[in-house]
């Protein structure tokens, strides 16, 4: 009976851990089982994907405070640990779409979580799973899919189910197996507060290291400790997968990648484009029989500080398989021989999650990270129903409402800076914005320009309203970006007016408001809301825009937001009317998001009556059943939340914000115009 190098069932109390380590040492001289007569000609690949976890929860990355994970650590001794690996996106469906396609979602139309408008492709774009299958691999998925595109003919797995296994392949057929482990998924932390008493943790809550932006409470400490416990359960599962490969004689024929699908999962991480939301653990175990595909020199037990992100995963597998990457791929191979130059930057993004809309783009170059918040009025902590099922999220917000947080902890619930610059070598939690520091102005300008070039070069579809994208559902999403390239660039330029001093932006804002396209008007109004009282002189033009019969409802909603944030209007009746009379559910949801921002920052409450079609569903067998169900749930959650009171302090701020001469009869002035055909 062979002695496995991996621990199948890890008990992390001190005595058992010592036994496991001694066992590991005793087995170290035993070679892995490799049946040379059955050796495949191409290497196998296994992706072990854990859900929602950041590197700091692993001792491999955080020796003092991370969880002991001997199986992952053993993998690292037999391969490479990547210290700067990123998921590009901070939530599962967007990140998994990036993995599958190897293309930035904002370019491929897959940027919104559980997309209400699924992307389609006629341009020859295929998933890495299909490309590997076409090359003769047996490709199995166990079992999560969660993609934001609908033409699944680009993903023809050999098998995809909770029982899918690489073992059912033909003799000598190389395999590519994807295994998702949900042990660390955020749902595992949605427990009642009573668990603090009833379910003690193995890790001592008093000894965990909390993020500085978290309140230091017993609940947050307990949740952190419980999450470390989950990582040790995760390690057991990883050990079982490795042992299975070893016992079948395939371990030394197989590149094993372990990584998180994105960061997480304590509050303020998953779904946000900060380091705790997008940075992931990544360990690649190098098989003995295919060491020659990597380098002449040993790579075992090494660490790499190269930038690696999900757009690089597909090109890497193709490179190691001796195949060429697609010319549609955004990334490049990071492992193997004869590699191109190393990645110089990491591009990341955050868009809609459930009913909460945002638009954030980030660029890391060296130790500097640039963050562009295109909707700065929306706090990071803007209500999203699923997130706030977590009792720690609820506690954090309640502490904010009651004024018990410091400035760093409160920032999560306040409007964001339009742009930020962080030195991650000194500030890994991104707490100190250097954008206004004189010594960083050159860096700020350079990174700002690089990000502007990035979003323009990919024709970033995140700038196009999701309600508008619905009209293009049956076209090729990559081609859509190409067709709208010039118009998207104009949207970006309008949005970037908020980066200028108002005196410099005034004339272009005036032009966009009066004669610009709908999208230029929309993004200029977002900029004007950011400028707030500085832009009061443009109020007559905005009032005129509200009265024009051909002004779209989305533009009207942004105009109402400006009038509200400058203290000239109570938005409740006007926005309620737009929402209730909207003929398009996604448009109504986007306007509700504006209402939610006013709710969470100024204390306004909205009592909205849902339209009957917002709860209707197709038959369960219909292709769009799940998508429509998720959309309906998002709308319902937003409507219910908008009825709830915020806090007395915000209500006082709201009342103070309204001046003595608000716009009169806003419903009459601002009729719904959802029937107007809008051209991009």
Descriptive report:
With 680 residues, the protein is an alpha/beta fold. The protein has two domains: 14-345, 3-Layer(aba) Sandwich (Alkaline Phosphatase, subunit A); 517-669, no CATH class. It has 24 helices and twelve strands. The chain has helices spanning 14-27, 70-77, 92-101, 105-108, 128-134, 195-198, 218-247, 275-278, 313-320, 391-401, 407-410, 441-457, 466-469, 477-483, 485-495, 502-515, 518-531, 539-547, 553-565, 572-581, 585-602, 625-642, 648-657, 666-669; strands at residues 44-50, 79-86, 138-142, 159-160, 175-181, 254-260, 279-285, 302-309, 346-350, 360-365, 368-373, 419-423. Strands 4-3-5-1-6-7-2-8 form an eight-stranded mixed beta sheet, sandwiched between helices. It has a four-stranded antiparallel beta sheet with strand order 9-10-11-12, covered by helices on one side. Helix 12 runs antiparallel to helix 15, helix 16 runs antiparallel to helix 17 and helix 19 (553-565) packs parallel to helix 21 (585-602). The radius of gyration is 26 Å and the shape is globular. The N and C termini lie far apart (68 Å). The model is unreliable at 10-39, 663-669 and 674-679 (pLDDT under 50).
Summarize the structure.
This protein is α/β, with parallel strands linked by helices and 680 residues long. It folds into 2 domains: 332 residues, 3-Layer(aba) Sandwich (Alkaline Phosphatase, subunit A); 153 residues, no CATH class.
């Amino acid at each position: 009976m062979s002695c496995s190098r991996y621990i199948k069932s890890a008990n992390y109390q001190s005595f058992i851990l010592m036994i496991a380590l001694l066992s590991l040492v005793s087995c170290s001289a035993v070679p892995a089982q490799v049946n040379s007569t059955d050796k495949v000609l191409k290497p196998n690949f296994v992706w072990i994907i854990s859900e929602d976890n950041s590197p700091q929860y692993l001792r491999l990355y955080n020796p003092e405070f991370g969880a002991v994970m001997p199986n992952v650590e053993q993998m690292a001794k037999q391969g490479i640990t990547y210290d700067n690996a990123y998921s590009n996106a901070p939530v599962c469906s967007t990140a998994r779409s990036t993995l599958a396609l190897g293309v930035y979602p904002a370019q491929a139309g897959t940027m919104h979580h559980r997309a209400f408008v699924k992307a389609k492709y006629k341009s020859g774009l295929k998933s890495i799973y299909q490309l590997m299958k076409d090359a003769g691999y047996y490709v199995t998925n166990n079992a999560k899919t969660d993609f934001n595109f609908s033409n699944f003919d680009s993903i023809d797995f050999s098998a995809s189910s909770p029982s899918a296994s690489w073992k059912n392949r033909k003799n000598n057929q190389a395999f590519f197996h994807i295994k998702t482990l949900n042990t660390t998924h955020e749902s595992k932390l949605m427990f009642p507060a009573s668990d603090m008493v009833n379910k003690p943790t193995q890790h001592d809550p008093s000894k965990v290291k909390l993020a500085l932006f978290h309140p230091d409470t017993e609940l947050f400490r307990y949740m952190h400790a419980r999450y470390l416990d989950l990582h040790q359960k995760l390690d057991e599962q990883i050990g079982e997968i490795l042992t299975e490969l070893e016992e079948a004689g395939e371990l030394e024929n197989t590149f094993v990648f372990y990584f998180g699908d994105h960061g997480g999962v304590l509050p303020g991480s998953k779904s946000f484009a900060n380091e705790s939301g997008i940075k992931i653990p990544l360990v690649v175990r190098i098989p003995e029989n295919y060491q020659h595909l990597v380098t002449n020199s040993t790579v075992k037990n090494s660490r790499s500080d190269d930038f690696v992100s999900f757009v690089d995963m597909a090109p890497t597998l193709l490179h190691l398989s001796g195949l060429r990457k697609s010319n549609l791929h955004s990334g490049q191979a990071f492992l193997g021989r004869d590699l191109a130059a190393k990645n110089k930057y990491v591009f990341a993004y955050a868009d809609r999650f459930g009913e909460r809309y945002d638009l954030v783009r980030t660029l890391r170059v060296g130790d500097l990270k640039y963050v562009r918040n295109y909707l700065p009025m929306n706090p990071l902590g803007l209500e999203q129903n699923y997130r706030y099922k977590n009792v720690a999220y609820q506690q954090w917000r309640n502490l904010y409402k009651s004024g018990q947080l410091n400035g760093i902890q409160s920032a999560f619930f306040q409007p964001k800076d339009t742009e930020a610059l962080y030195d991650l070598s000194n500030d890994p939690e991104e707490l100190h914005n250097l954008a206004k520091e004189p010594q960083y102005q050159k860096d700020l300008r350079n990174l700002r320009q690089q990000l502007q070039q990035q979003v323009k070069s990919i024709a970033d579809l995140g700038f196009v309203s999701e309600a508008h994208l619905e009209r293009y559902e049956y076209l090729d999403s990559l081609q859509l970006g190409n067709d709208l390239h010039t118009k998207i660039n104009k949207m970006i330029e309008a949005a970037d007016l908020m980066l200028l001093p108002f005196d410099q932006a005034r004339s272009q804002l005036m032009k966009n408001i009066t004669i610009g396209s709908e999208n230029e008007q929309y993004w200029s109004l977002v900029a004007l809301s950011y400028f707030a009282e500085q832009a009061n002189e443009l109020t007559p033009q905005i009032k005129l825009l509200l009265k024009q019969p051909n002004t779209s409802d989305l533009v009207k909603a942004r105009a109402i937001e400006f009038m509200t944030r400058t203290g000239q209007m109570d938005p409740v009746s006007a926005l309620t009317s737009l929402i209730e009379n909207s003929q398009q559910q996604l448009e109504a949801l986007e306007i509700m998001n504006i209402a939610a921002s006013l709710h969470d920052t100024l204390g306004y409450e909205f009592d909205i009556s849902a339209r009957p079609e917002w709860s209707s569903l197709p038959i369960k067998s219909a292709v769009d059943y799940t998508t429509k169900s998720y959309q309906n749930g998002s709308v319902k959650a937003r409507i219910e939340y908008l009825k709830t009171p915020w806090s007395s302090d915000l209500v006082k701020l709201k009342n103070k914000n309204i001046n003595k001469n608000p716009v009169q009869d806003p419903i009459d002035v601002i009729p719904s115009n959802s029937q107007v055909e809008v051209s991009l």
